[in-house]
Amino acid sequence: MAQETLQLLVSMHRIVRHLRRSRTSAVLHPTQFLALMLIADEQPIRIGEIAARVPCSQPTATTTVAGLEDAGMVRREQDPVDGRATAVVLTEAGAEMVEASGRQAAEELSKLLRRLDEADRELVLRAGTVLAQIADDL
User: Boundaries of each HTH marR-type domain copy (predicted)?
Assistant: First the structure.
């Protein structure tokens, strides 16, 4: 099982790397891209939570959010739970970037999946559901 697990890890890494390189919008650094997708899913979200979930250090998360803020994709607001803290939310430009990036990544992955026969393609798509369960528990 160790060999199959390693093969899965390497293959997933290579596919994700391919998808990152194929993005026509190289506007975002990979950490910014991951943070933006997380913010879209979890907003409002604190920077400490972004650091824990990306994962990266707290200073890297702060710098990443600052870059996204400078680009007009996110803004900081008063945390609705704790008024002393700030939370990060998407702006309209950020939501548009998430939509465009998600659509482009899905299209590129669909191209890769079309290389497979139908049974293997369905197997990979079903595995995506299981992998999402694992990811959600992280």
Answer: 5-138
Alpha-carbon distance of 109 to 120, in angstroms, equals 14
> Is the CB of residue 60 less than 8 Å from the CB of residue 51?
yes
- Say if 34 falls within a structural domain: yes
Element (H, E) at 90: strand 86-90
Higher pLDDT, 75 or 18: 75
Looking up residue 79, the CATH number of its domain turns out to be 1.10.10.10
Please state, in angstroms and rounded to a whole number, the distance separating the CA atoms of residues 34 and 132.
15
For residues 87 and 135, what is the distance between their CA atoms, to the nearest angstrom? 23
Contacts of the segment 3-8: beta carbons below 8 A, 24+ positions apart: none
Q: How many domains does the chain have?
A: 1
125 is a domain residue: no
Please tell me whether the overall predicted TM-score, pTM, comes out greater than 0.85 for this model.
Answer: no
CB 54 within 8 A of CB 32: no
Instruction: Please provide the average confidence, as pLDDT, over all residues in the chain.
Output: 91
